[in-house]
From TrEMBL:
It catalyses: Xaa-L-Pro dipeptide + H2O = an L-alpha-amino acid + L-proline. Binds 2 manganese ions per subunit. Its EC number is 3.4.13.9. Mn(2+) 2 binds at residues 243, 254, 417. It comes from Halomonas colorata. Mn(2+) 1 binds at residues 254, 336, 380, 417. It holds the Pfam family Peptidase_M24. The gene is pepQ. It is an enzyme of class 3 (hydrolase). The keyword Protease applies. This is Xaa-Pro dipeptidase. Residues 166-424 form the Peptidase M24 domain.
């Protein structure tokens, strides 16, 4: 790891210390404990599901697999890390990396699950309900007041240079996976083999992915969060949609690419190209102070133009938007905030923590904020052929070219997704 990144990380931790001190002072607390969380066993079993550490904990330590541990933050005091590291011959004991950030913390190695030492008026955040009664009673602290958690969420909305560097590297690693997935598709692999090619090239095991990779061939490309991997390749190859990421020091890439296969009608390939151009147009619209809901609406208008230009809709773009046609072809939002969680915190709030819900007609939008420098967002326009959403339109007297829609149904759909930083004057596309 480069010295530059290590230095940026030390600055990031110093920034967090200052920001947390302000939040604690404002909310009248002397100390704050963050619980890492821990994995639960499956019912009646001794195996656990995959796990990710609480985002506010990872914000400090950059490790997304720490369990049963605590971080204590207090003004004018070094962060105290109570790291659960029992003697254990079944597992490799938890060990911190030999990296400079570790020396910015006081590390207490705990051989048993223990409560941290808190001073003055204390507060805890994290999945406190999951800790044992002994520990929760020993804490003597307020639990996660909304205003405090929202203020800490708000901090996560604005990425430090260290966090941006991590997101950039997560993107670089994920793109290697996407290139391998495309090669596997060209070589006629099925969904599972495309997934395995992606994991190998992006250098990660499946339990570490930031979200379950979506690898959809043909009509599976039209299932927004398609969750399976068919073992065998289909006989005909119309399309492939890959929505797959990578974590780097806790930070998530979230990238989607769609490819036309040899059996797709020519218009599908043209639509894939049109969605790439739409993604670029939306990325280039990013500047500080732009309203993300406005960008989402701009996407719908441009989708209307695409439907008209490719003969899917024989009316005007405006009619396609007003009659809800573009929403049937793209039922999700333009994107979301991205960071330690793929759908990162505070997307549906104003800066002061009051709710900023999605507009009624766009309920799936996960980000309603005015964009500001330091925010990282996804831009992910889509165009899908989803029978369940198109069915209600078939009974209406709308100028939809159903013959063409029916030809495209086996292709499932298209999504193109990049990760973008809002800079002081414009944007930086983090997806190479
Ligand atoms: N991968 C989930 C999303 O794009 O939001
Ligand atoms: Mn995605
Ligand atoms: Mn996304």
């Amino acid at each position: 790891m480069s010295t530059t990144l290590f230095n940026l990380q030390l600055e990031h931790i110093a920034h967090l210390q200052r920001a947390y001190e302000q939040v604690l002072t404002k909310s009248g607390f002397d100390s704050l404990a963050i619980y890492s969380g821990h994995a639960d066993y499956h019912f009646a079993d001794d195996h656990a599901a995959s796990f990710q550490t609480y985002g506010h904990f990872v914000h400090w330590v950059g490790l997304a697999d720490i369990q049963h541990s605590w971080l204590v933050i207090a003004p004018n005091t070094r962060p105290q890390l109570y790291l659960y590291a029992p003697d254990d011959f079944w597992h490799l004991p938890t060990k911190l990396p030999e990296e400079p950030w570790v020396s910015a913390l006081d590390v207490h190695l705990c051989s048993t699950k223990t409560a941290p030492t808190l001073t003055g008026k204390a507060v805890v955040i994290g999945d406190i309900e999951s800790v044992s009664t002994d520990i929760s009673q020993a804490l003597k602290a307020d639990v996660a007041p909304n205003a405090l958690v929202q203020a800490l969420d708000e901090l996560r909305m604005f990425k430090t240079p260290y966090e941006v560097a991590c997101l950039r590297e997560a993107n670089r690693l994920a793109i290697a996976g996407h290139q391998a997935a495309q090669t596997a598709f060209i070589g006629a692999s099925g969904e599972l083999d495309i997934q395995l090619a992606y994991l190998a090239a992006s250098r990660q095991r499946e339990s570490n992915v930031p979200y379950q990779n979506i690898i959809g061939l043909n009509n599976h490309a039209g299932v927004l969060h398609y969750q399976h991997y068919d073992l065998t390749p289909p006989k005909q190859r119309f399309s492939l949609l890959v929505d797959a990421g990578r974590r780097f020091r806790g930070y998530c890439a979230d990238i989607t690419r769609t490819y036309a296969g040899p059996d797709a009608p020519a218009v599908f390939g043209e639509l894939v190209n049109a969605l790439h151009r739409l993604k670029d147009e939306m990325v280039e619209s990013i500047v500080p102070n732009v309203d993300y809901v406005g960008l989402h609406k701009q996407m719908h208008h441009s989708l209307g133009n695409i439907l008209v230009a490719h003969d899917l809709f024989k009316g005007s773009a405006q009619q396609a938007v007003e009659e809800g046609v573009t929403r049937a072809f793209c039922p999700h939002g333009l994107g979301h905030s991205l960071g330690l969680q793929v759908h990162d915190v505070a997307g549906l709030r104003h800066p002061d923590g009051t709710p900023a819900p999605a507009p009624t007609e766009h309920p799936a939008l996960r980000l309603t904020r005015t964009l500001k420098p330091g925010m990282v967002v996804t831009i992910e326009p889509g165009l899908y052929f989803i029978p369940m959403l198109l069915k209600p339109l078939r009974d209406k007297a709308l100028p939809i070219n159903w013959t063409l829609v029916d030809q495209l149904l086996p292709c499932g759909g298209i999504r193109i997704e990049d990760n973008v930083l809002v800079t002081e004057s414009s944007f930086e596309n983090l997806t190479p």
